[in-house]
Design a protein that fits this description.
mainly alpha
């Protein structure tokens, strides 16, 4: 039961297509399927980390996230702007040629999305609210049951990212280089806008 609940939570929490989803899609289009998969696993791993903090009540980490959330959001905004500009300036023809001539930066794809997802500290409070609101973790829950719940969240989130990037990969060959060029421009602008919005919202909150 805990595993199933976790799977459903992880799946539904990952479905909304925000900037992380756009980045995973674009990494799949610019690279290969495994680039998209590793990027998705980075997001799933970060969500799982937040679920662990919420489920086990790790006070030190929770307090750090709560007190430093403005700086974390600024960091996330900067990363989004950097990735958005990178996509905007990327020439798909050159990128595809590079992918064929050298190994893929899979580790970099995983880490960049992992860090970006971690920079959104509100996620831990979302998981905490879900756990409390739906009574998913009763007071008498054991560590094994909570571990089962967290593992289910990781499986659910990973399943979504695997389905998403695999679907994108199926249709990637229908895109001509000219279309990929335009998609890089559009996706890059959207992701950059997300980053600017994140930074502006933080500065606005500080002024208030």
């Amino acid at each position: 039961m805990y595993l199933l609940n976790g799977f459903i939570i992880g799946l539904t929490a990952s479905i909304p297509l925000g900037p992380v989803g756009l980045i995973c899609i674009q990494k799949t289009l610019n690279g290969r399927l495994k680039n998209g998969i590793l990027s998705g696993l980075g997001a799933a791993s970060a969500d799982t980390f937040f679920a662990i903090v919420a489920a086990f009540g790790i006070s030190a980490v929770h307090n750090f996230i709560e007190t430093q959330q403005l700086y974390l959001r600024i960091t996330g905004g900067v990363i989004l702007i950097g990735l958005g500009l990178k996509f905007f300036l990327t020439n798909p023809a050159i990128q595809i040629r590079k992918q064929r001539n050298r190994g893929n930066s899979l580790w970099a794809d995983f880490v960049s999305v992992f860090v970006l997802t971690l920079s959104n500290p509100l996620t831990v409070f979302v998981f905490g609210a879900v756990f409390a609101g739906f009574g998913i973790i009763p007071d008498n829950s054991t560590w094994f049951e909570m571990s089962e719940l967290v593992f289910g969240i990781f499986i659910g989130a990973s399943t979504w990212w695997l389905v998403l990037v695999s679907t994108v990969n199926v249709f990637r060959y229908k895109f001509r280089l000219r279309r990929l060029w335009w998609m890089n421009k559009i996706m890059g602008l959207i992701i950059t806008a997300f980053g600017l919005l994140a930074i502006v919202s933080v500065l606005f909150l500080k002024i208030i």
